Amino acid sequence: MNTAKSKIVGRTSNSEPDYRSILELVDAFLLVNSLDQLSELWGRLARISGVQGAIFALSRAAPDPETSSFEIITFGVESGWANSYRLLQMSAQDPVVQASLYTGQPMTWAQAARLAIRHGSKAWRGSQFRKLALEAGLRHGVIYGRRSSYSPNLTAITALTTGDKPPTRRQCTLSSHLLPHLNEILPRSGFHQAPDLSRCEMEVLKWCAVGKSNLEIAKILNIAERTVKFHLRNIYRKLECDNRAQALSKALRIGLVSPS
Predict the structure, then answer these.
(1) 72, β-bridge pairs
(2) Taking the CB of residue 17, how many other CB atoms lie within 10 A of it?
(3) Residue 243 belongs to a domain with what CATH number?
């Protein structure tokens, strides 16, 4: 599939989206870093878009499957569905989610379902996740999913539901502009726990952030250079990075260090 040409298509609607409102919402999205802020933002989004509910999901992969995690936050969606989806880890078997990750583009649930069927999703019609979704009134909506820019091990999924009716063309246009920005919210540090660095690791990271070399950090902290390297290896492991540049970039994004 040529993802560059894919677009979400909805039923006809006479009203056009208010692009000033879109820009204001995008600006607001950039500041959201807590559940309270997200809740307030959802109210604004619902008023402007007319959608019935929103689903924010975050999957964190880990080498040990036992330590992998899945978080889900919903608004205007039946809580029983969210609990079942979380407990049964349905994102891994949800063809709509998998299709959205495959394309990397916002799309309607119907488009995602057709793509999943085309690529051989045999369990689509009788799947448990679909049965639960229909029981909760989750028939139509739009979805966007991608691996997070905050960490390669984080995958974020954002969906807006329009209930029993397919999304209008206006709602699809709004979603194409807004979903990629909404999808960057949940991976932020306000929604998942930052890595637990030791006091010594934080000291080393702080001096790395101002451009000090391993030898300079060793002299400042009055420790051996090999000890600095030991702390750096632990930092890379906890931040899930391979080198100093990646570690500093991520530490800045999640607020472990301040810009110098």
Answers:
(1) 57
(2) 20
(3) 1.10.10.10
